[in-house]
Amino acid sequence: xxxxxxxxxxxxxxxxxxxxxxxxxxxxxxxxxxxxxxxxxxxxxxxxxxxxxxxxxxxxxxxxxxxxxxxxxxxxxxxxxxxxxxxxxxxxxxxxxxxxxxxxxxxxxxxxxxxxxxxxxxxxxxxxxxxxxxxxxxxxxxx
Length: 143
Known about the structure:
Structural class: alpha+beta
Radius of gyration: 14 Å
């Protein structure tokens, strides 16, 4: 499927749905990705059209990851929630990460519903909480 005509974007669509929220695919993907940045999401999430533009800007200043300050979340009755680097308040779909950093920690859990948060904890332990930067805006609708 041709989604965008931009060589800087690598799109991976898995042919089958896996159990465990797709965490096995995420771990496998991190081992193969060659792009400079990685965004791990699911097909039922919506990113605003300027998501990448806003999320890339601060990554030029030494941060390893950027995340949006707000998201609309289906688990929260479609309310806008404030994102923060705490379990339950950030979703992997709203975080753009430098691939080099993501590969250094790896996706180590495939069975926990919150494996994306455990991945972020690994990044924080390795690079520090100040390596993440919050980008203002409600840039993600999580379904």
